[in-house]
Input
Amino acid sequence: MQLQLLKENESPREAFTPFPLINAVLNGKQEGELYDDGDGLFIIHKSAFSWLMPDRSFNGSENIVEHLLSINNIPSYFHIYDAPKHLINKCEKSKLINTKLRKRVQMKFVSKELSLLDLTLPSGYNIEKITEKNFASLAVFDLNIDSKYWKSKIDFLNNGFGFSVYNDNHEPVSICYTACVANNEAEIDIATLKAYQKKGFGKVAAVKFVEYCLANNITANWDCFEDNLSSLNTAQGVGFCSVYQYDLLSIFIK
Output
């Protein structure tokens, strides 16, 4: 049986997963799709991050790879959070795809207060909340904030938030913003222009982000590859704690 797209009123939108992007699809806050073949439930976010529900993860399906590839408009390159071992094994044996398996670390800011406050910026630099007024300037990061995760610029401005560090020419150099907000958790996306890296600007933006989360009863979630030492060090320096390590399976359709 091929995977069938579930209608909105058929979707288990009360479900909670470890991954905010998946929760954002389940609760209808962001775009994505849910598929069911009777043996398993597959959820994929518009950004191509996906998840198999562990209590219904196609354990009895010998054709799980074919099932996934049968989905209409499946991206040619997509990722599966916390991929189960039986899926990894079947994907590695498949002649239809290439795969890459990498370890990721999920971290959360679980403290009730920040130990890092009022980080100093160079003279002329400042940090601003992302607004309608400064949104266009953020195109320099090439992040497609208005479309990769969110439905539009207005959707982000109404339902997300973020902060950007500006230099003395009022040019953005570092940014920390929400990829999604779901179940009172904010998934962080962070970037710093190459010429401004390793100068602490990312940490300044992240501290401001967490400060906002604390003031609004939101838990900040940081997710990165375990070998991305720069990202890990920044997160730990701000006060994030590791809560989960998992396999991210990336699939390339031949």
